[in-house]
Automatic annotation (TrEMBL):
<keyword id="KW-1133">Transmembrane helix</keyword>
<keyword id="KW-0472">Membrane</keyword>
<protein>
    <recommendedName>
        <fullName>L-type lectin-like domain-containing protein</fullName>
    </recommendedName>
</protein>
<dbReference type="InterPro" id="IPR013320">
    <property type="entry name" value="ConA-like_dom_sf"/>
</dbReference>
<keyword id="KW-0812">Transmembrane</keyword>
<feature type="transmembrane region" description="Helical">
    <location>
        <begin position="145"/>
        <end position="162"/>
    </location>
</feature>
């Protein structure tokens, strides 16, 4: 992680945020950030303090219209998307290092650049874990369904054995 640099904006899920030269914050932190780099060719990228998240930069065609950045953290899954106009980009989809004690913060360091950023809204809400996004290759476990299925199998076996025993008694008579 560079000690300085990064001109643009940062959206952070991390421990305490202190002023610094890394997108307006300190570069020594625990957590993740979504950075919008405005120098040269603008890009969006996910950065993590420990290097556990590998995210390739996304180079959206920013214009004068509205863009929507969405950060969804479902337990141990993290999904970060960006909508620019009618185009959707997946910035990151994978495991999440986010801890319940982390803070949400926004920082900026644009140097001499006159890059405007207008926030129309920032929303935060709790989502039931059953609505977690599907991640390809990941299996899910539904305990209730397994219990019901097991109960039906046991009931079916009992019914079968009862019927078999009844027929054997009828045959002997």
């Amino acid at each position: 992680l560079p000690a300085s640099g990064g001109g643009g904006y940062g959206f952070w899920l991390s421990d305490n945020i202190a002023k610094g030269n890394y997108y307006g914050r300190n570069s020594n932190y625990d957590g993740i950030g979504v950075v919008i780099d405005t120098k040269g060719r603008p890009f969006v990228k996910v950065v993590s303090s420990d290097g556990s998240i590998k995210s390739n930069p996304v180079y959206p065609a920013f214009g004068s219209g509205m863009s929507i950045l969405t950060i969804e953290n479902y337990g141990r899954r993290l999904l970060i998307t960006l909508r620019v106009g009618s185009t959707d980009y997946t910035v990151y989809s994978g495991s999440s290092p986010v801890q319940p004690t982390y803070y949400f913060g926004i920082t900026a360091s644009t140097g001499q650049s006159g890059t405007p950023l207008i926030f129309n809204s920032i929303s935060s809400y709790s989502v039931a874990s059953s609505k977690a996004p599907y991640v390809k290759g990941e299996t899910t476990k539904n305990r209730d369904l397994v219990i019901i299925f097991g109960g039906v199998c046991i009931a079916g076996l009992i019914y079968y054995l009862y019927q078999k025993q009844t027929k054997e008694k009828e045959f002997r008579l």
